[in-house]
Write the structure tokens for this entry.
Amino acid sequence: MATHLGDYFDEFTHRDWQTLDPDAVDDPVRLAIVGLGWFTHNWALPGIQRSAFTEATVVTDVDADAVSDLAAEHDLTGVTPEELKSGAVVDQYDAVYVATPNATHLEYVESAAEQGKAVLCEKPMAATLERAERIVETCEDAGVPLMVGYRMQTDPAARRVKDLLEEGFVGDIVHVHANMSQHMLGELTGEADQWRLDPELSGGNALMDIGIYPINTTRFVLESDPHRVIGHTRSVHEPFSEVDEHAAFQLTFPDDVHALCTVSQNAQHHSRLEITGTEGQLVLDPAFYEREDRGVAVVRGGVEATIDFDQVHQLEEEFAYFGHHLLTGTDFYPDGRHALTDMCVLDALYESAETGSPVAVPDAGSHD
Amino acid sequence: MATHLGDYFDEFTHRDWQTLDPDAVDDPVRLAIVGLGWFTHNWALPGIQRSAFTEATVVTDVDADAVSDLAAEHDLTGVTPEELKSGAVVDQYDAVYVATPNATHLEYVESAAEQGKAVLCEKPMAATLERAERIVETCEDAGVPLMVGYRMQTDPAARRVKDLLEEGFVGDIVHVHANMSQHMLGELTGEADQWRLDPELSGGNALMDIGIYPINTTRFVLESDPHRVIGHTRSVHEPFSEVDEHAAFQLTFPDDVHALCTVSQNAQHHSRLEITGTEGQLVLDPAFYEREDRGVAVVRGGVEATIDFDQVHQLEEEFAYFGHHLLTGTDFYPDGRHALTDMCVLDALYESAETGSPVAVPDAGSHD
């Protein structure tokens, strides 16, 4: 029996999307970074710096001190948001990374589009579906490439799960379970990051901020979109009085495959994605946090393998993909239309949580 | 710090319900066994024989050969169903164990009740809610004790999970995930057991036969009942054309705690119960199969323990509990009213699967 297991092992963390030699890149994509919160500091900026296809050149934030500190520390150009929008340093960057509170993504995308710059926008794309649509249309109208920051999609663990599903390793998919929970107030440091508790800035909390991981990762690995959802949200503790603290929801995919998902901003830290098919099962556990390793279990019949591998830096992978695809002129998989489907799902989930009834998800054109 | 961890370890498999010394029991409860399928052969009869509080004395089945073979092999009295019902060997047993196809439980419960015998009825109690109600009322009217065969409730793994939840180990419960799937046609041997494919005999398949494990075990460990459900069923493969092959469902418990459950009679073998709270998480994986060991993981904050213990024979524990409680005149926890709630939940789930809408679960009086 030729197992091809050697190839499988050797290629596990291989960037299957990469055609450009990283060592041959002299002019990486220069990025202006908008929004200097916890995630940018700890993950996005290191990711940009580690990636051979990107480099950080400009930073901005509404907090002038944060800008000058970071600019000095990393030898970057620090500007005010107004300076960035006015085009004062437009020659210093090729693309804009937007990592501000959800409600303020649009204004930075608009100025980037006006300047003809590519955009990498954080998830969720906006605080409302209507503004997300404007983001997508703005970029389409200006002809600038738009990618949304789904770091799971460039993690080899998720890509290998997708590969196995595609080749029928688990047979027909029967059902999916996913959970993502954390103590947001304890795990995300800094008052500046607590805009998630303000519904005007965030558009919602548990569903918007982390519900999007089960939704998008399931869509990615299944390569299909839910057409019907039912959602429940609730808030028990005071800091969450204006946003959803916990959520439970169910997504109906084609062939009546159900994904049963829960998320919480105030529960035991845990994340898991479990896909059960007629012939096997694939499990990521831990699944969704950038700050811990992914666990991969592959089961078929009576055989189970737990796969340990050289974990990647998720943001290095994401920015490498972004930079690489801009350098090669290749379309992004998680583009604006793809991300708009998540926004439609989230919108439908909040509506369902209000009404208590299942809600149909409109087609956002992700497969056009 | 006094950990009391020694006590915890020593008492993990301790029968917290047992007041009678097993060695002091001279007259165990004598059981007539009705229905000699795969489960009786492999699990129930060995359980009855291993338990100090029960013994098997009489067997019956519609299959006369199965009766004479088993009676000869184990030195039991073999009778026809008609002989059992007529009271021909009424002096040879104190209680009746009913393990026939779901639709035929009622007739044996009726004759047992007429004879003043206690009843241990297999789950689900009947093929329809209406007949389950008749089973409960029949036993109540005749004043005979009725227990339903929920073997998870006497497994120490489930009892210790219940203990931890009760003492607030995980904080407030936030959500529950549960899955139970198997290849019914491959794992359950013998044509005689395939009555589950006949809706008249079974009342349904995936939900009725295995959905009841996530439902009942969650009710047991949470000590509360769902008041609202939404369910989806589907059948893809031919043998399941008249019954549900797969099901996905959601149960709403008090305080809006959601249990998200999936079951399948034609998917990768797997079972898991995952309870996430504000401060911790408890996981049984494997959870629900009598034919494999239970896995127990206990998590709180950054500490996780995987607990290996001397696994019990689940049917020995169940029958020991049944016999013990009859000998001591103690009420059963999984009595008829308790089981009727499961039947109400199943009935509501099938209705929801038909209509596509959430369905309220009527109160079956399990807490009266």
Summary: Residues 156-311+335-360 of chain A form a domain with the Dihydrodipicolinate Reductase; domain 2 fold (CATH 3.30.360.10). Chain A touches chain B through 40 residues (CB under 8 Å). The longest helix of chain A spans residues 336-355.
